[in-house]
Amino acid sequence: MEIIFYNVYLIIKIQHYLSSFREWWIYVIFGCLLIISCSLLFSRKKRCSVIRDNASSILPGNAQHIGSREEQQDSFGFTDIYDEDFVREAGALCVLADGMGGMKGGKDASGIAVKAFLNSYSLLSKDLPIEKRLYISCFSANDEICEYAENHEIKDMVGTTLVAAVIKDNNLYWLSVGDSRIYLFEENSLIQLTTDHVYAKELDQKVNRGEISIDEAKSHPERNSLTSFLGLEEITEIDVGHRQGTLRKGSKVILCSDGVYGSLHYDDIQTIVASSSDSQEACDVLVRSVLNKNKPYQDNITVAIMTVV
Fold first, then answer.
1. First to last CA, the chain
2. pTM score > 0.90 for this model?
C-alpha cells in the first residue's frame, strides 16, 4: 500500500505546482500510476507463496507437532522457493526426516540429514539427471551423519529415516530410506509411492515360503523395526522412483513421518486431503486430526505437501 500512497503524494505535489493549468493530462497520469502500483503490489504478493517451474506452479505447505514426546526429532525443508532459475533447472524439492527415538542424537540426525541433503542437491551440476542428484544427496547426508556420530563417539547409535520428492515440468521424482512415506493424491485417489523399509517385509516373505504362520508374523516383536536408515556405513535399501509427466493441476505430493500415518487411517488421510482447499490447510487439518485421537504415546507429527496449481 505504501507504493499507492507515495504516488498519490506525487500527484498532489504535481497539481500544486501546475494548479494554474488544470490540464486533463494530470488525471490521466494519476490513473496510470495508480494502475501500475496496484499491479506491482498484487504480483509481489503472488510470488511469495508459489514455486514456479517451466510447466506448472507449486504451492507448498507444512505442519508439525511434538506429540507426547519430550523433543521434536522430525525435520523437514524445501529448496529456495524464490530462486526461479534453480526451480526451472532442478525443480522444487522437499525433504523430510524422522530421527530414530531409540538411538542417541535422533534430533540431530534428522536435522543434519535434511540440511546436508538440501545443500548437496542445490550444489550439484545442472547436467546431472534428477534421480542421480537424489542418490548423491542421500549419500552426502549419510556421510554427514556418520561423521557426526564418529566425532561424538556414538558410532552405530545415530539414525534417521529420509524421504525426498522433486516436482519438475510435471514430472515427479522421489527417494526414500526407512519408513517415512510419500503419497500422491490425484483424481481423488491417494497412492502410497514408497515402501516401508521394515522387518515386516521379511516376515511376510517367510509366511509366503511357509516358514512361519501369519499369526507369528503379525505378532513378531521386531515387526516394525527399520531395516534401512541413514546412519549406517552402508545403506541397505534405497528406493528411487519417477513418474513421467503425469502430474496435473490439483495433484498433491505428501511427505509425512510415521506419526501421521501411524495414527490416521489411509481413508482419513485421503478424505482430509481431498476436502482441503490448499496445501497448508491440508497439513494443518492432518496434524489436528492426529492430535484429536489423543493417543497416550503419540509420536512426533510432521507433514509437508506440494500441490500443483
1. 27
2. no
Cα R_g (the chain), whole angstroms: 25
pLDDT by position in tens, the chain (length 309): 444 444 434 344 434 443 443 454 444 444 544 444 444 333 333 333 566 655 568 999 999 999 999 999 999 999 988 888 999 999 999 999 999 976 668 999 999 999 999 999 999 998 899 999 999 999 999 999 999 999 999 888 899 999 999 999 999 999 999 999 999 999 999 999 999 999 988 898 898 999 998 999 999 988 889 999 999 999 999 999 999 888 999 999 999 999 999 999 999 999 999 999 999 999 999 999 999 999 999 999 999 999 999
List, edge to edge, every strand of the sheet that includes 92-98. Answer: 74-78, 92-98, 162-168, 171-177, 239-243
Residues 69 and 6 in one domain: no
The total number of structural domains that make up the chain:
2
Residues 150 and 234 grouped into a single domain: yes
Residue 213 shares a structural domain with residue 138: yes
